[in-house]
Amino acid sequence: MKRKIKRYLLAICLCWTLSAGAQTRLWTLEECIRHATENNIDLKQKLLEQESREIEMNTARNSWLPNLNAGLGQNFDFGRSPSKDGVIVDRNSANSSAYLQASIPLFDGFKIPNTIAARKLDLRAAVESFNKAKDDLAISIASYYLQALYYKEILHIAELHIALTSEQVAQTEALVNTGKVPLSQLYDIKAQRAKDEVTRTEARNNVTLALLNLAQLLELERGGDGFDIAVPDLQEPAGRQTADILSPELVYWNAVAVKPQIKEQEWLLGSRKKMLKVTQAGYYPQLNLNLSYSNGYYYYSGASDIVNVRFNDQLRQNERKTIGFSLTVPIFNRFEVRNSVRSARVAIISQELAMENTKKTLYKEIQQAYFNATSAQEKYTAATQSAEAGREAFKYAEERYATGRSTVFEYNESKTRYAQSLSEQAQAKYDFIFRTGILDFYNGKPITLPEVTGNGM
């Protein structure tokens, strides 16, 4: 009987493998995470935020450059008008002027260098914010991926029980023919096979829905039509014992050094401190170097050529070149600088509290992850023992039914308990894999799964 069941399941797996190889690509967990990282809309928005911080940093760096302005002017005066010497004359005139001005900051209380430093820290914080979003996305994908694997295993169990029930239908027919059991048992076992087929249909629907949820998270086109995942070799995930799982304290100290949410808060705190120095620059004088060039052309209506000098000659005569320094000393600014400094200090305290809260939240998450991992390991161990006991009980019930010493109801009840124990074992297995993976993830390790078996079953 076992050989027939193995052949039946082998045929099912072969059909699934051929179908998957011909029609669909089997995605690994690493491929899913990589694809989502490249296509997720939230991550793209994070990249735009990062680009904005880069632009702000570039703007701050360019503050050292001179500001250069040029201007042109044309005036027409009628009646009394000023001459180029500043004397008011009774003539209509026209005046053309042009200028070029530049101002270079020499000292501004270290406002520019501190602004540049603050923008650099903001950029680093934006990078860590992007990394944190990638981490969250990877965890979500791993959760959906393992959920799909769980439903695939439930479908596999459903296929197994259909094979078992089909074998019992054949045996029951033989028993009915020899008169060892009544015909009603044959009808009962066939009814049970119909129920098993309904269970398999439900399991297939759950697999389809789980794959759809994962495909939508990956932002796949056409809703993930033909999308399927590869099944890794996860037969013995409980090889890790509870003693092998790192303590929350050790994981926390490792996580503080590597997790992006902590680094983000550290960079933001450094930025707030630099911005305090930026606001304090308002107490210092500012020194600028000023450069200018100006020129003009004057024309007086009805005047002789002696007054109206030629255009080229006027350009040589009227040009003016200036170089100078300007010093601005703050005396009283309605306490704007003082209040800005106070606000900057408040922002530092607020950021320190935010960083402390982030660390506490991280520690709580690690504590919860440790508890979930150890609990999942114990649950998987108990579920494995239960599944083994259920297998032995079902084997005994199977032998009794084959010899006609039990009813189909007793057989079905034992098979149902066995199916339930297998389902609980599968759920506990994937929960244990996910929980220990999360704890490892806090410890700085990427979320990975073992090598795949090569098919979607």
Report on this structure.
With 457 residues, the protein is α+β, with helices and mostly antiparallel strands. It has ten helices and eight strands. The strands form three sheets. The protein has a four-stranded antiparallel β-sheet. It has a two-stranded parallel sheet with strand order 1-6. A hairpin with a 5-residue loop joins strand 3 and strand 4. It is elongated. The two termini are 23 Å apart. The N terminus and C terminus are likely disordered.
Which class do the helix and strand fractions yield?
alpha+beta
Number of helices: 10
- Structure summary, number of beta strands: 8
Strand line-up across the major sheet? 2-5-7-8
Over the alpha carbons, how many angstroms does the gyration radius reach?
Answer: 40 Å
Can you give keywords for this protein?
10 helices; alpha+beta; 457 residues; 65% helix; disordered C terminus; two-stranded parallel ribbon; four-stranded antiparallel beta sheet
Chart the SSEs and their pairings:
Layout: H1 2-23, E1 26-27, H2 29-39, H3 41-61, E2 67-77, E3 80-82, E4 88-90, E5 93-107, H4 111-178, H5 183-217, E6 228-229, H6 248-258, H7 260-280, E7 286-300, H8 311-318, E8 320-328, H9 336-402, H10 408-442
Parallel strand pairs: 1-6
Antiparallel strand pairs: 2-5, 3-4, 5-7, 7-8
Helix pairs in contact: 1-4, 2-4, 3-4, 4-5, 4-7, 4-10, 6-9, 7-9, 9-10
Question: In a nutshell, what does this entry contain?
Answer:
This protein has 457 residues and is α+β, with helices and mostly antiparallel strands. It has helices spanning 2-23, 29-39, 41-61, 111-178, 183-217, 248-258, 260-280, 311-318, 336-402, 408-442; strands at 26-27, 67-77, 80-82, 88-90, 93-107, 228-229, 286-300, 320-328.
